[in-house]
Amino acid sequence: MATPSASPSRDSTSPGGTPFICYHRLFDYPTEVSCSPPTPRPSCHGHTPLDCWVQPEWNAMAAEARPTQLLTPKASRVGSTQLQAALSTPQVMKEELQLRAALDTELSIMKMDPFRHITPDVTPLMDGLYVGGFPDEEILEILKREGIDVIINCCARELDTRVVLPTGFVVHDFYAEDCSDYLIIFHCYDRFAEIVTDALRNGHRVYVHCVAGVNRSVTLCIAYLMQYYHMGPISCVQLFRSRGRVNILKNVSFRHQLVDFYLNNLHA
C-alpha cells in the first residue's frame, strides 16, 4: 500500500494576504471515502483452498497499485478564496529574469577588471552620499576631509561604529544581515531613504558602511540611487565601476531584491 507523505501541508499566504494551502504531494490531499456497499468476496466454490487464498491477495495488490480518482483533490475540498489565491500566485516574469541575467553579466565583467583587488576606502556616489567599509583610521581621515558628519552603520549587529568615531558624528544603526534569506529592502530601505534624504536636504554628507562595503551598504545605496536619481540596476553598477568600486553585490539574493524593487516599484 502506498504510504502517505510524511511532509505535512503548509499554510501560507499569497502576496495579497489571502491564505492558501500548499501540499507537497498528491497523497497529502484529503481523499473521498466511498459510500458504496463493499464488494462481495468470491466464494471458494470450484477452487482449491490455495486458489481461494491467493486470488484475493493478488486482487488487493492490483487494486492498491492502481491510482484512483479518489486521490484527486476536489474543488469542493478547497475554499473558493484559497483556490483563487493559489491560481493567481504571480510567477517570475520574463522581464525580471532578463534583468537578473543582465545584472549578473555586468557584475561578471567587473570581476575581470585588472584593478578589482584595489578597492577605495571610501567611494563618492552622488551629491554628498558615500559608501565604504567599517571606519578605520584612514577612513576617518577621509570622512573629516570630505566634511562627512552623518554615518549609517548597516552592520550594527556585529560592529559598533560609535566605538571608533570621535564626537561630532551622527550615527544611525541598521541591524541588517548579510545572508541569502534576509530581506534587506523590506526591513531597512524605507528608514534608510528617509534618513539620507533628510540629511542631504539639510546640507549634511552621509557615509554608508557595512563591514567591507560589498553587500549591505551597496544594496541600500543602489536602491536609493534607483529611486531618487531614476537609474536602473545596470546603470548603478556601472557608476560604482566608474568610481573604482568593482567588488560589490556578491550576495545574489540582494541582487534579486534590487531587481524586484526596481521592476515592481520604480520601472514604468
Structural class category: alpha/beta
Number of domains: 2
In the predicted model, the low-confidence regions spanning at least 5 consecutive residues are 1-16, 18-34, 47-54, 60-89
Shape: globular
Number of strands: 7
How many H/I helical runs? 8
Helix content: 40-55%
CATH architecture of the largest domain: Alpha-Beta Complex
- Please tell me the overall pLDDT: 78
The string of secondary-structure elements, in order, is: EEHHHEEHEEHEHHH
The largest pleated sheet is described as: 5 strands, mixed
End-to-end CA span: 55 Å
Cα Rg: 30 Å
Strand order of the largest sheet: 3-4-7-5-6
The fold-level CATH name of the largest domain is Protein-Tyrosine Phosphatase, Chain A
CATH superfamily of the largest domain: Protein tyrosine phosphatase superfamily
Family: Belongs to the protein-tyrosine phosphatase family. Non-receptor class dual specificity subfamily.
Domain Tyrosine-protein phosphatase: 121-267
Organism: Trypanosoma brucei brucei (strain 927/4 GUTat10.1)
GO cellular component, one term: nuclear lumen
